[in-house]
Amino acid sequence: MSEKDLLYNTILARSFSKNEQKRLGYGAFIASLFFVFTLCTFFKPYLSPLPIVESQLSVDVGLRMLRISETHKPKALSSSNYTTFQNNITSNTTNTQRLNDTSLPKNHSDSFNRTTPTLISKEQVISDGNMMEETVKCKKQSRTEVCELNGDVRVHGKSATILTAITSAFSGNTTWHMRPYARKRDPGAMNNVREWTLKLVKNAERLENANFSRCVTNHSVPAIVFSLGGYSMNNFHAFADIVVPLFTTARRFNGEVQFLVTNKNQAWINKFKEILRSLSNYDLIHIDDEDETHCFTTVIVGLKIHPEYFRELTIDSSFSEYSMSDFRRFLRDAYSLRNAAVDLRRRRPRIMILSRAGSRAFTNADEIASAAGETGFEVVVAEASTGLARFAETVNSCDVMLGVHGAGLTNMVFLPENAVVVQILPIGGFEWLAETDFGRPAKGMNLRYLEYKIAAVESSLVRKYGRDHEIVRDPSAVIKRGWMAFKSTYLVQNVTVDINRFKPVLAKAFELLQKQSIFSKNEQKRLGYGAFIASLFFVFTLCTIFKSYLNPLPTMDTQLSVDTGLRMVRVTETHKSQAFNSNYTTTSGASESLISPTTQNNITSNVTNTQRLTSSEDDKLSVCNDTSLPKNYLDLFNCTTPTSISNEQSASDGNKMDETIKCKKQSRTEICEFNGDVRVHGKSATILSTITSAFSGNSTWQMRPYARKGDLVAMNRVREWTVKLIQNADHLENANFSSRCVRNHSVPAMIFSLGGYTMNNFHDFTDVVVPLFTTARRFNGEVQFLVTNKNQPWINKFKEILRRLSNYELIYIDGEDETHCFTTVVVGLNRHPEYFKELTIDPSYSEYSMSDFRRFLRDTYSLRNAAVSTGESLRRKPRMLIISRARSRAFTNTDEIANAAGETGFEVVVAEANTGLASFAETVNSCDVMLGVHGAGLTNMVFLPENAVVIQILPIGGFEWLADTDFGRPAKGMNLRYLEYKIEAEESSLVRQYGRGHEIVRDPSAVAKRGWTAFKSAYLVGQNVTVDIIRFKPVLAKAFELLQRRQSV
To answer: Could you tell me the keywords of this UniProt record (predicted)?
Structure first.
């Protein structure tokens, strides 16, 4: 039996003849096509338009043309919208004001300053015959003015001046003024906005002759200059005048733009920090106080806004590449808001009643809430004072917003689409204001809008003035007296809503929500696509079933060629035969070891009791078991010796010899430099670095970026970071944190910790400041600091040093949930590799020295004295600083010491290091001798001029080794003279406390053997010093003598 016969004997074949089966097949095919057509027609609104991503990559800054353009609509404004009320009470404009304080090139000043709500169009062009690119393009409209400057643009904040170089002659004015705030015709606002001067300079060389010249800070991204003055702290104006215009102006840069803020307003910045971070990947600059010149290739001065008057909270797509839908989508992303559209499935609709603490408050909010609850709403009563991020989340969780006319209603921008806005209009003729400020904007945001105009009896003004008073009876008469009269009368009233009158409005709002589709727009769109795909599958199934009855059909084969231009995939991998650079070897040698007194192993805070530090190759004691690097170098990487053992591992691309990763681990620190695509996620303490070649070692290890590695107490206070190597950038998509670079940086980064022993002045310098200097100085300020273990007091203390080493505001990386991306990241800080070399930079291990560091400090704190005057050049009494201590190891006879020093010939200063580092550094630098008991205060000797004298007082307890390690040798390394005075037992308060025969006084070594805690509590915390003046006078005389000697050449 043939196949056709088998098929014919099926149930279908027995039911229909062959001809009937064929007709049935064709009919089913046509029916399925009709079904698909019907589905497409029904779901057409939800199938288009599809999202479009536009990326503009080319930004050409070689510009040669100046264009000043304005466009004017000839159509007059609708007379129905502009009443007598408008001319008197709106704060947006006045009748006769002209912007006399601003002018553009003279031949266009008339049209530039004309105050008409229509749009005028004028152009002036300066061009180079060979180049048609634009150098300066200015557009002035009725509400704003914006200039884009390209080429060599220099911004000097202190003088409020912007210079732009042009290459061609220019017959018009080369200087004009701008106030970068988008409410141009309102003098009340513009008087609070700083005026900026824009100057065109014929060529770049003439910029050197300007009041400011050299570029101190160069930027690789465009800049936007805008003001936070005007009415910025009013929530309505904050959005209408700044946030929406800033979005339309800055969004096209995709975060690669630098904000320069004039009229600094920290409260505004704190309020809108999420928006600022979403629009710019860079910390904003408060430009007004900047005395340094910032240089850019593109600078935009001013912000774009809808060109028509009385179009608030609106973006007209015909004037902008964005819309209010784009803006609201941006807000949802910036604040991580969940609800794009109202969704009432499985819950009651939610209404927010906006509460106000001052004027225009509801006096019966509880009654309104009860009525809303009876209507079917879940009720939330809130005031917009909880922080914008939190309040935005609350608003976005609601379906209806109800409030009296006022700035609080501006928060409707956070409502989901199809939500309802109910605005309560007080008495006083608010209709036009209500419609302009919130009515039309709400509709433009795809929100439903309802109004409730209160009756006179619902206003507190009736109770205050009576029904027959002009204020209640004839608001138009008050309005004619001007804005101030209107404001003082009608904006200060409160509202008692008539619940019976108001219930139909609540019912209408509820009805509007119930009429909505049970599916959101996105769900409807997905449903449409799903139905379309299902219909295609249905057609495919029918065709398969009836295939034999549809053949032979005419066939047409169309082959679409997709040529990606790819012809070869090459995977190249090369290996360096030498794993470690020969420059990093053991330099101390086996013959060199550090010998310390018996107390060394017990009292030093640098190592633990059991760690004996020698340079013997047999010493394999590990002090960093909590850290591992790639496995094949684990042993060497974890060995800690006091010698300068330095191991390197490099992962490199075989085609390029530049190192991708270079890690160096020594006995006291570990440091890794990553190059290429490096991504830092603070919240998870993770660093991802891509490599292009195969890597046989461990691809994940941990680091604690603090330069006192062997000290477990210190390192336990340092956050641990995980480093991961990923062989291909595509694998970043699978990382635990978001793979996309949210903030891209154009400069290298350094990650270091402010944990450990920071806030002890000695450790501040030895563990952080000196290592930070040796690591960061080579970048000349072009480096971004990422701080882990945030320590604000430390940052405040050393802010001058941080600013000197980096041109960028540091980032507290621990709390950052955004991914920061760099091309170079350095984790950890360089430090002298040998133990017990404190406050020291050895030039054999660094390109810098302690002389360089002290010169850096003098420059940072503007210290005058590089060296003390000696011999005949000393034309004044030498100055001695006695460091006072408030608690332990304090002098108990400071006055006697000061008198003795004065008799020796010194001018005496007694000070405690608690006046702020900058002030104290200046005091120290003015002195020739520093005198103090062993302690962190002596670290301030770094500020002494060269050839000054340091006198360290040693309490009882076996301080000799500590004193020499911490301050003795470091002082000599700073070109300072060093003297010690070791007190006798009678000079210690411990004798009076315990007596001469007590073990603490008689045998300090026995106490030291019990460990660091016992030593610390006995000798560092428990004793003070009463100096024997007779014994001490020879030390004072020696210090004076050292200063009197002529400095040897």
So the answer is: Glycoprotein, Glycosyltransferase, Membrane, Transferase, Transmembrane, Transmembrane helix
